[in-house]
Amino acid sequence: MSMGSKLAQARRKHNLTQEQLAEQLGVTRQAVSRWESDTAYPETDKIVRMSEILGVSCDWLLRDGEDSPDGSAPTASPVVTRLLRQAAERRVQLTLYENEGAPSCDWCVIREFDGAWANVEFVKEKKGQRESQLIPVSSIRSIIFLKEKGDV
Questions:
Q1: What's the pLDDT score for residue 89?
Q2: Residue 15: left if φ>0, alpha if ψ -120 to 50, beta else—which one?
Q3: Are 145 and 109 in contact (CB under 8 A)?
Q4: What are the residues whose beta carbons fall under 8 Å from the beta carbon of 51, sequence distance 6 or more?
Q5: Strands of 140-145's sheet in order across
Q6: What residue ranges in the chain does DSSP mark as E strands?
Q7: Rounded CA gap, 83 and 52, in Å?
Q8: Which of 10, 57, 62, 95 supports an S-S bond with 141, CB 3.0-4.6 Å?
Q9: pTM of the complete model beyond 0.70
């Protein structure tokens, strides 16, 4: 089942119209319609908010082929996990929801993650300071991959 189909199913289960859901998310009804028809995809922060409103997990919304919201019988890796696997041990710039207590930094490295938590090493380049912190994966708003030193 596609993300759009799951979104429509969960929205109907909660007796919400596209317009009501759109209002709660701060988007237009047309945006919700495009998401449900799989012609566009919501931003990460909208997916997180939808999962809260609809009482489903982000994984369930994003996994291809997983039909039940209880998470049984997964058939593909979640998009977030694939992205974090790509980011592991690479220089990235993270944007967190409400900064979640993370130190301000020039860049960071995701050292490891277990699905719900990521061990992140924050680096202040000018001061040469490094600080590791365990952060919830759900607090990550965006990941920007940075060029490695020596990359063209």
A1: 87
A2: left
A3: no
A4: 57, 58, 60, 61
A5: 129-136, 117-124, 107-113, 91-96, 140-145
A6: 91-96, 107-113, 117-124, 129-136, 140-145
A7: 21
A8: 95
A9: no
